[in-house]
Design brief:
The chain is α/β, with parallel strands linked by helices. It folds into two domains: 92 residues, 2-Layer Sandwich (Transcription Regulator spoIIAA), CATH 3.30.750.24; 233 residues, no CATH class. Helices cover 69% and strands 9% of the residues. It has a four-stranded mixed sheet, with helices on one face. Helix 6 runs antiparallel to helix 7 and helix 7 runs antiparallel to helix 12.
């Protein structure tokens, strides 16, 4: 009904003002009063809210009246609600009491040394993360040693499953990567060595580069991105769903149940994947040398046998267990740092891949310095 529509009228009374509300002040009709309510000027003068002509009011209308009163009081006006039925005023007071009060947050003023504080917090956080990672690494190594000392307690089904996921399923991408790296080395070596008439040395370039460095290094990077992220995502999801807490409640050690089989699978399969990458890398290099430099496969194999020592293969393979251990531990450690929701899982998965690849490259650099000092 038109007569039932709510109305708001501001009537001056000397230095004061009277806000008259009439009609049915219910939620259904409040949209029409949003602007009139907002236009009531909180200029500090006394205000009397007159409800005598108000026929109906619900919680929505009571909330608008309570908000108007709060805004006027905040501006320093003396506010009085009068003229309405007792239940109308009681409803307004009840709604006002139930409305949560927003407390402004204390915002610290920025100053010239704010960056020092942020730097200090980052250093402390990084230090604590390093300590946590070292502790987790120690627990993992202890768990691996304990499981190997008691093979009958090792979860063989979980180990074999992870070996298939980490190793067998990764053979195609690792083989393709190795083949393409061999092709690139062969092509680039051919274009450079032809300038000096030293095309035959392309065999040493390809074999030493792949066997000693690129084969196992790029394999570890692929595994860190592929299997490391999978480890963090799967274990992190279990952490979010409180399955890890349930294991601890049942007396099971999450390190032995979740971490050890995954790390052992990497320790077993990464050297094998590196060997596959080496084979396909040499094959790709031999193929490109044949096409680009007319170095026949027989000559390639002969030069490989005569000029490339087995020590280069051993140097590459020695790195594999260290790469595997670091990838697995970083991935699982990041998974155990997951907190809250699935958003944390995604963030930790990204950090797992980045940190895993970084540590693999750092360890490879340390090995290069170490072998250079030994003259190997």
């Amino acid at each position: 009904m038109t007569d039932g529509l709510p109305k708001l009228q501001v009537v001056p009374e000397g230095d004061a003002r009277r806000v008259e509300l009439s009609g049915a002040l219910v939620t259904e009709h409040l949209a029409a009063l949003e602007i009139p309510f907002a236009q009531v000027d909180p200029n500090g003068s006394p205000v009397r809210i007159d409800l005598s002509a108000l026929s109906v009011i619900d919680t929505g209308g009571a909330w608008m009246v309570a908000q108007l009163r709060a805004r006027l009081l905040e501006a320093g006006s003396a506010v009085d609600i009068a003229g309405g039925a007792a239940d109308h005023i009681a409803l307004i007071d009840t709604v006002a009491a139930a409305t949560p009060q927003e407390e402004p947050e204390d915002v610290e003023a920025a100053h010239r040394w704010t960056w020092v504080e942020a730097l200090g917090e980052s250093v402390v956080s990084g230090y604590q993360s390093v300590l946590s990672f070292i502790s987790f690494l120690g627990q993992t190594i202890a768990g691996i040693v304990g499981e190997l000392a008691r093979p009958h307690k090792l979860r063989w089904a979980s180990l074999v499953t992870h070996m298939q996921d980490v190793g067998l399923s990764a053979v195609p991408i690792v083989a393709l990567m190795g083949f393409l790296i061999g092709v690139v080395l062969g092509f680039q070596g051919a274009s450079q060595l032809q300038q000096f008439g030293a095309e035959v040395f392309v065999v040493e370039l390809i074999s030493i580069s792949i066997l000693r460095e690129l084969g196992i290094l790029l394999t570890a990077i692929i595994v860190a991105g592929r299997s490391g992220s999978a480890f963090t995502a799967s274990v992190g999801s279990m952490k979010v769903q409180q399955e890890v807490d349930a294991m601890q409640t049942l007396g099971l050690d999450p390190i032995r149940v979740l971490v050890v089989p995954r790390v052992l699978a990497l320790l077993i399969m990464l050297p094998l994947l590196g060997f596959v990458a080496n084979l396909f890398g040499l094959f790709g290099g031999a193929l490109m040398s044949w096409f680009s430099l007319d170095v026949s496969p027989g000559m390639f194999i002969t030069r490989l046998h005569d000029t490339t020592d087995v020590k280069h293969l051993l140097v590459g393979m020695i790195k594999a267990p260290f790469f595997a251990l670091m990838i697995g531990v970083v991935a699982c450690w990041q998974a155990f740092q997951v907190q809250g929701s699935s958003t944390s899982v995604g963030r930790r998965t990204t950090q797992s891949v980045v940190q895993g690849i970084f540590l693999v490259i750092a360890i490879d650099a340390l090995f290069s310095i170490f072998f250079a000092q030994l003259g190997v």
